[in-house]
Design brief:
The chain has about 350 residues and is an alpha/beta fold. The chain folds into two domains: about 180 residues, Rossmann fold; about 130 residues, Phosphofructokinase domain (Rossmann fold). It is built from twelve helices and eleven strands. Strands 3-2-1-4-5-10-11 form a seven-stranded mixed beta sheet, with helices on both faces. Helix 1 packs parallel to helix 10, helix 6 crosses helix 7 and helix 8 crosses helix 9. The protein is elongated. It starts with a strand and ends with a helix. Bound molecules: 6-O-phosphono-beta-D-fructofuranose (F6P).
């Protein structure tokens, strides 16, 4: 008898941990007697029926590899009127189920396909932004924040040699988790998050005081931070999200800080470096666990669910609940950072 087929896709921005998660799905699927196909480049591959068989031998050595072996895109089939093509691909590839790995956008599409067309989907949460509400952590975040923390420490070294203030801009879209963890982890002097507008007076006073104490001061700024008095035309992607790459937060803050404090200031933007490279151990284990759990959910027929980390357990939550709202930095975390910085 032909084996049932599970398709896997990765959509949205890539992040470290995707390959271990794909590996988890494929190895568990093989144990349970399923075969897998890898959909190429996210929802774009479901529109174009671009798929390749993927078996245990393809994934065995993938646990430490960054990126996604399937490719990804920010294509939204609901935006382009391509949902019928997605449904057709599901039929022509003779799929039993689809495991969609992504953030709120990719999983939002998965949820709609499940609700409107009864497609057998299971969601796997991924994003370096860590902004999915239904799970404690998403893989990709630990690797991104660890790299950002190391970058901040390097900036502190060179900044101190030159008696400068340093500004590090990190990613994170509308949630400041990466900036927050980086600032706490690296012992930064100031934190600028999308969750609250920058208080320029407060920032400059604190930086001056820190610089006087330790010959260097460092600000960690999130790419989406709101700098008072400056508004720019923002471009949107297919999911209606602001494209943040041209906001130039680090550069703008640097000018303000230098003018206000009269202390020489430099900035660095680590951008996509946060999304590449080998996943940390945490992200390898989390990716693997949620990948394996996703296959278990397929086997149990619990479609319309997403795997989520709650405490130490990987559980199933509904895709509907998982995509209902974003997880932004909470007041308790803000208070903690205010106590330290
Ligand atoms: O959503 C993940 C993310 O890395 C955001 O932090 C960032 O704003 C965005 O992707 C960048 O996207 P792109 O790779 O399309 O420039």
């Amino acid at each position: 008898m032909a084996r049932k087929r599970i398709a896997i896709l990765t959509g949205g921005g890539d992040c470290p941990g995707l390959n271990p998660a794909i590996r988890g799905v494929v190895l568990k699927a093989s144990k349970l007697g399923y075969e897998c196909v890898g959909i190429q480049e996210g929802w774009k591959g479901m529109i174009n029926a671009a798929a390749k068989p993927i078996g245990p031998d393809d994934v065995r050595e993938m646990t430490g590899k960054g990126g996604t072996m399937l490719g990804t895109s920010r294509t939204n089939p609901y935006k382009n009127g391509c949902v019928p093509k997605v449904l057709e691909t599901f039929q022509t590839l003779n799929l039993h189920a689809l495991v969609a790995m992504g953030g709120e956008d990719t999983l939002g599409v998965a949820n709609k396909l499940y609700k409107e067309h009864k497609i057998n989907v299971i969601g796997v949460p991924k994003t370096m932004d860590n902004d999915l509400d239904a799970t404690d952590y998403t893989f990709g975040f630990d690797t991104a924040a660890t790299l950002a923390m190391e970058a901040a420490e390097r900036l502190i070294d060179t900044g101190r040699s030159h008696r400068r203030i340093m500004v590090l801009e990190v990613m994170g879209r509308h949630a400041g988790w990466v900036a927050l963890y980086t600032a706490i982890g690296a012992g930064a002097d100031y934190l600028c998050l999308p969750e609250r507008p920058v208080d320029i007076k407060d920032m400059c006073a604190k930086l001056k005081a820190a610089h006087a104490r330790r010959d260097v001061a460092i600000v960690i700024a999130s790419e989406a931070v709101d700098i008072p008095g400056e508004k720019k035309e923002e471009e949107l992607d297919e999911f209606g999200h602001m494209i943040l790459k041209d906001r130039g937060v680090a550069e703008r803050l640097t000018k303000i800080i230098e003018t206000e404090t009269k202390i020489e200031t430099r900035s660095a933007v680590i951008g996509h470096m946060q999304r590449g490279g080998p996943p940390t151990l945490f992200d390898r284990i989390l990716g693997t666990r949620v990948g394996v759990a996703a296959t278990d959910l397929v086997h149990e027929g619990k479609f319309g669910s997403m795997v989520a980390l709650k405490g130490d357990a990987v559980i199933a939550v509904s895709l509907e609940a998982a995509t209902a709202k974003l997880k932004t930095v909470t007041p308790a975390w803000l208070r903690l950072s205010d106590d330290l910085l």
